[in-house]
Amino acid sequence: MPARSRVLVTELDFSPDVVSTVYYERVQREFAAQGVPVAYAPEQEWELKAHGIRHPLDSLQIGALRQLGYTHVLVVRSAGQQYGAADYFFPWQVAQGALPYDGRIQSAMANAGSKSRVSFTLISLTEERPVYLGMTTSSVGSLAVQDRRGGITQTNLAATEYATHKALRKGTRRLLSRSRRVP
């Protein structure tokens, strides 16, 4: 990224909108740590519309975005979430899952955590093309508690929002490390 980069982050497609703003703040913190100013399109709506920009990803709006000082547009999208579960596995299922020839119970026990996938696309307004495409997956494991009879309760104490925060942090850091700033 050039030293005078300014990035416009399009609206994040996470719901509800309040959560999207919190997720944007996560991305903004990572960029600020690298000294790259970013702006969030929903917060800049009036300024964008005043300059005739209805949708930042419209190719006809690239010139207007450049006049406002933006060098890149960052598109962050949710590519899927898996919600954690609270499952009980009976002692015979635990024993069956420990056997190497039957992976059904093991995979059910392993999938009790929350997962989030987030895609990143960084578009250069000077080159008028994507310069970075990335996908990040983060997961938060579940807590396994064994009872007296040998059964296991898998409980996921973290919500998918935490997994999404991790994915945003990890993905943004990866994006910034792969597009080093050039003086």
Summarize the structure.
With 183 residues, the chain is α/β, with parallel strands linked by helices. The chain is 34% helix and 28% strand. A hairpin with a 5-residue loop joins β7 (143-146) and β8 (152-155).
Largest sheet: 5 strands, mixed
Tell me the series of helices and strands, N- to C-terminal: EHEHHEEHHEEEEH
Question: Which blocks of ≥5 consecutive residues have pLDDT under 50?
Answer: 99-103
User: How far apart are the first and last residues' alpha carbons, in Å?
Assistant: 9 Å
Helix content: 25-40%
Mean pLDDT: 80
State the shape. elongated
Query: Which strands sit side by side, in order, in the main sheet?
Result: 2-1-3-5-6
Oligomer kind: single chain
Structural class of the helices, strands and pairings? alpha/beta
Tally of DSSP β-strands: 8
Q: Which radius of gyration do the C-alpha atoms yield?
A: 21 Å
In words, what does this structure look like?
It is a single chain. By secondary structure, the protein is α/β, with parallel strands linked by helices. It is built from six helices and eight strands; from the N terminus they run βαβααββααββββα. Strands 2-1-3-5-6 form a five-stranded mixed beta sheet. Helix 1 links the parallel strand 1 (7-9) and strand 2. Helix 4 (91-98) packs across helix 5 (104-110). The longest helix is centred in the C-terminal third of the chain and has 19 residues, at 160-178. 26% of the residues are buried.
